[in-house]
Amino acid sequence: MTARWPRAVSPLLWAFALLSVVHLGALLVGVLPVVQLTKPVLMPVLAGYALARGGPPLLAAALLFGCGGDTFLQIGGDIAFLVGMGSFAAGHVCYLLLFARYGAAPAGGRRGPTVAAGAVYAVLLAGTVVLLWPDLPAELRIPVAGYSLLLTAMAFGGLRAGPWAAAGGLLFLLSDTLIASGIAHWPQLPAPQFWIMCTYAAAQWALADGVLRSATTAPRRRGAAGGGRTVNRRGPSGARCAAGSTST
Fold this sequence. Notes:
Layout (H helix, E strand, L loop, with lengths): L5 H24 L2 H21 L4 H19 L2 H25 L8 H22 L5 H20 L5 H21 L8 H36 L2 E5 L5 E5 L4
Antiparallel strand pairs: 1-2
């Protein structure tokens, strides 16, 4: 994978880091105008960084859908919440497509560890939904449950794209669980919005970095899988020759 705009890579990464620190600091000290200004800018800057590194446009789309979710959740109200959740859901679909395109089978393709990991994620999903269900507003229960299923699938899919993407998926689960616990009026950590945004910003960065790493190594994996095997054929003259098998 070749960088599209090499000179922009470092400035955009530093801009994302600086904006994240400013946003989190504003949350801690309660400077609402700075919070509102910086939150919608975080994901477009990270999307620009991903594109500058040569990342696929679908990754930028995933991050920009995150920006849409951030914006609508900041507006407040049930309708804005549902629209924002839908935008995040679209981003998760983008991530799932990216994992399928650039990822590899987790645990080296071994069935046992993959099934075990899937069972852990399924237990996390079921436990979270069952615990939250009674305390969620009735009109949000089904949408939250459906979104939680997609979010968990994305987090599990992150295992295909390596440890950074897997960590990003788990952090996204944690961030959105903190949001859901607030909607359910559960007891909250001090400065809950700080922890929500801290885990969310880290999640999106880790997911983006995991996809970028996978997109870089995917051609080498495919080349090794497609060009590393030979089959013997007998030519018209009876001589044996080796021909590389192709994979599609």
